[in-house]
Every structure is written in structure tokens, then in C-alpha cells.
Design a protein that fits this description.
The protein is α/β, with parallel strands linked by helices and 456 residues long. The chain contains 19 helices and 18 strands. The strands form five sheets. Strands 5-13-12-11-10-6-9 form a seven-stranded mixed sheet, sandwiched between helices. A five-stranded mixed sheet has the order 2-14-15-18-17. Strand 3 (116-117) and strand 4 form a beta hairpin. Helix 14 packs across helix 15 (339-345) and helix 15 packs across helix 16. The structure holds pyridoxal-5'-phosphate.
């Protein structure tokens, strides 16, 4: 009989009341009404009988204002990444170089010769833009850029092996992340997956035994995000090429687009794109936003007739990149023409190259700024991670800033995450840990303000 929900005032009454007048000045009547109806619906359905006074008109005004503000706030909010994970997939992987941001902004603001050949004065192709640079940087005959590496693999297999067999080692049927699995990608391409070898060992003879007249390609997937050891073996790209070169294509999914010797980044040996092509891969696919340090993109380099066939595939249109990506990628690749510029100006490469001593110097100065604001912190040795499913085993020695609180680390982590500038950090042994490897010097001021706010 006395269901508290009966106390919910009508829309008309609420809109006419004083609590709603300022809201109606800020947002259109339609938006306010819709938000109000949603709020009322939730209160009707929700566990009523709690603390709220459902007759209080200001309750509705507050909930409607929150709903409207939530929509106006950006959900793709900038984040200060103090986790020390350089290629954080959930945080957008590689931050771009200034040259890439400038190129992107220039082409975003106006028109660009995306599909127009200025010399010939007629329609051109968007696929020419990064191709010459990629040929120069990798030694490939030709190159094609699509939306991401998953798209590159799908397009390559759909074009080369659609309706036929693609051989993949059982040791390489990996999950890349967020339930994206190589096996499913191969099937979605329309190629028929033929598993070869065993999880720990796949020999060249296993590939040879699996070859039939239906075989159209061999896919070799870089085990980029995990490490196997013990009783293991695999056939190399060179061995596979020796087995089938000229008859069937070898497609190598390198994962990360490593264009420079990893030793320059302080990382263990791994084949670069040029190495994979030189070893005999007919096509090599990679991401633009992993170790390459550019925008999200899938890059395919390799033999010209195969790339031309991929470009002609109607699927290419569905997987194509936009002008913003092409502009940012082209500017990033141009930096690689002078490797020392790439190392200095591409944030991913710069962050990977920082030594523990470099970081310790900055962390020490930062701790003094924290102390001046009354916040106590200490230095602690630790490791950063490459991330992005690359070099899972690599330890990058770093120097962490540890905050023991109060407030307790979990509460501090929550406040930083929800603060005006979102900050993500790590927690270990009930301490909040900040890694300046992934914070640029220009971001330190905002990090300091966020930490001060989280301690208030
Ligand atoms: C990351 C990765 C992919 C997927 O790349 P996206 O650009 O995220 O689509 C595919 N293969 C390997 C080996 C990878 O490491």
C-alpha cells in the first residue's frame, strides 16, 4: 500500500519546480526530459526503500545533472601512465612523435592529396603514401598499410589462401590478447587452417609432410608475447623458404615492427623486418603501434605481385586506413631514415632506452618536489616492461617512486585513477609504485598536482 515509489513526482511537476530551472537553462528540454525519465525508471526498478527521499525534487535534479555531465565529459580521457609498461595496449600503445602529431594535425585540419596524384593532375591511390619509405627501410619490393596487424593477416591469407590450406605450427597458434587468437583469424580469412607439429616442437619435416595440392601458404607467427624453453624446436623462416620458395608463399607475422637492431634499444636479439625478408619471407606483417612507435596500423611488406593482389582484393577497402593514420605513420617512418633521429624522437624508443640511472635522477628530483608538498616517498629498484605483447621476458631496470601512505595504497590508487587527470600506477607490498619511464618530463607537473590532490 505505501510503496515508496508512489512518491516519485511526475515529469511535469519536476520540470516546473525550482530545482530544475538552472538545468533547463544549460541543456535542451528534450535532453533534460529524457534524462529525467531514465532516472525515474531506474529509481522505480531499483531497490527502493533506501536512504533516498523519493519526494525530494532536488534528488532528481542532481541525478539528471550527473547524467548530462557524464555525456559531456570525454570518456577517452588522457591518462598519465605511471605503470612503466611502455606499450600499454589498454592505454593506446605508442604515444606519437611530435613530427607525427604535426603531420596528423595538418592533414586533419584541411584537405590532403590522399587519393590524388598532384603531378599527373588526376586520381591517385592512398596506398602509395608509405610504400616508398617502407621499401627503403625494409628492403621489400612493395608495401601496403591497413587498419591493424590482425587485418593485415586476414587480408594476406584471404588473398593468398582463401578456400585453400594455410599451414601453421601448433606452437604458434597463440592468443594475442583480448581473446584474439591466430587460429580464429586464419579461419575468418576463409583459409583452412592446417595444424602442423607439436606444441613444443615443430620440425621442417612436419611442414613437408603436411604439404598437399591444396596447400596455399605457410604462416609463421612470431611468439612475441610468451617464451618457451626446454625441449623445444621450430623451423626457421629460412628453412621454410628453402622448402617451398617459389612454389608457395611464406607469410611471417612478426607482431612488432622492429625496424632497428634491438640492441640499440637494449633488448635481446629478435629478427627485424629486414632480417625476416632477407631470410626468405615472401610477406611480413606487423603492427604500426608496437615497437615501431607509430599509430595503430597493420603493415605488410614483401613481394610485389603478392602485395598487388592484396591491394586488388575488395576486402582491402574494408580494412583501409584513413588519412590521419597515414599522415602519422609516414612522419614516423621518415624519422627512421636517420636512425639516430628515430631513437631520439620516437617516444617508444626513447622510453625503452632510458637507463635506471636516467630515471633515478628524475625520480630523486620528483621525490623532493613531493616532500615540499608534504608527501613522503622513497626510491626503490624495480623493472619496467616493454608491453604490447613484445619481449615478455625482457626486464628493463628502473627506479620506482614508492608511496607508503597514508592514504593506503589501494585508496591512493583509486583516487589517482578517478582524479581530474587520471593516473595509473602499480601496487606492490601495499605501496603505490610510480615508474617515470613512461611519464615524459613535460607530464611531471601534472603528475605532481594529481598526487597532491589525491593526498588532500
Ligand atoms: C600484436 C600482435 C598481433 C595483432 O596486432 P594488432 O595490430 O593489435 O592487430 C598479431 N600477431 C602478433 C604476433 C602480435 O604480437
Amino acid at each position: 500500500m505505501d510503496d515508496p515509489r508512489r512518491a516519485i513526482p511526475s515529469v511535469d511537476r519536476l520540470l516546473a519546480g525550482p530545482a530544475f530551472q538552472s538545468l533547463l537553462e544549460r541543456a535542451s528540454r528534450r535532453r533534460v526530459v529524457e534524462a529525467l525519465q531514465q532516472v525515474q525508471g531506474e529509481l522505480r526498478r531499483g531497490p527502493v526503500g533506501g536512504e533516498e527521499n523519493l519526494a525530494d525534487e532536488s534528488l532528481y535534479a542532481r541525478l539528471v545533472a550527473e547524467r548530462i555531465e557524464r555525456l559531456e565529459r570525454s570518456s577517452l580521457a588522457p591518462v598519465l601512465n605511471a605503470t612503466g609498461v611502455v606499450l600499454h595496449t589498454n592505454l593506446g600503445r605508442a604515444p606519437l612523435a611530435d613530427a607525427a602529431i604535426d603531420a596528423l594535425a595538418r592533414v586533419a585540419r584541411g584537405y590532403g592529396a590522399l587519393e590524388y596524384d598532384l603531378e599527373a593532375g588526376r586520381r591517385g591511390s592512398r596506398y602509395v603514401h608509405c610504400a616508398a619509405l617502407l621499401r627503403e627501410l625494409t628492403g621489400a619490393e612493395d608495401a601496403l598499410v591497413v587498419n591493424n596487424n590482425a587485418a593485415a593477416i586476414v587480408l594476406a591469407l584471404a588473398t593468398l589462401a582463401g578456400g585453400r590450406d594455410a599451414l601453421v605450427s601448433r606452437g604458434e597458434l597463440v592468443e594475442i590478447g583480448d581473446s584474439f587468437r591466430i587460429a580464429e583469424i586464419v579461419e575468418k580469412s576463409g583459409a583452412h587452417l592446417v595444424e602442423v607439429g607439436a606444441t613444443n616442437r615443430t620440425h621442417l619435416a612436419d611442414y613437408a609432410a603436411a604439404l598437399t595440392t591444396d596447400t596455399a601458404a605457410v604462416l609463421k607467427v612470431n611468439r612475441s608475447n610468451f617464451h618457451v624453453s626446454g625441449f623445444v624446436s621450430e623451423a626457421t623462416i629460412a628453412e621454410l623458404a628453402a622448402l617451398i620458395r617459389g612454389r608457395l608463399p611464406v607469410v611471417a607475422d612478426l607482431g612488432s615492427g622492429l625496424l632497428l637492431d634491438p640492441a640499440l634499444l637494449g633488448l635481446p636479439p629478435e629478427p627485424t623486418v629486414r632480417d625476416a625478408l632477407a631470410a626468405g619471407a615472401d610477406l611480413v606483417t606487423m603492427s604500426g603501434d608496437k615497437l615501431l612507435g607509430g599509430p595503430q596500423a597493420g603493415i605488410v611488406v614483401g613481394r610485389a605481385p603478392l602485395i598487388a593482389a592484396m591491394r586488388r582484393n575488395p576486402l582491402c577497402r574494408a580494412l583501409r586506413v584513413d588519412k590521419l593514420t597515414l599522415a602519422a605513420l609516414e612522419a614516423t617512418l621518415r624519422l627512421y631514415l636517420q636512425p639516430e633521429r628515430a631513437l631520439a624522437e620516437i617516444p617508444t624508443l626513447r622510453m625503452l632506452r632510458l637507463t635506471s640511472d636516467d630515471i633515478a635522477g628524475r625520480a630523486q628530483a620528483f621525490i623532493q618536489r613531493l616532500a615540499a608538498a608534504g608527501i613522503e616517498a622513497t626510491l626503490q629498484q624495480g623493472n619496467s616492461a616493454v608491453g604490447g605483447g613484445a619481449y615478455p621476458e625482457a626486464l628493463l631496470p628502473t627506479c620506482l617512486i614508492a608511496l607508503a601512505g597514508p592514504p593506503p595504497a589501494s585508496e591512493l590508487e583509486r583516487r589517482l585513477r578517478l582524479g581530474r587527470t587520471a593516473v595509473l600506477a602499480r601496487i606492490a607490498d601495499e605501496r603505490l609504485l610510480l615508474d617515470l619511464r613512461t611519464i615524459s618530463p613535460a607530464e611531471e607537473g601534472d603528475l605532481l598536482l594529481a598526487l597532491i590532490a589525491a593526498h588532500e
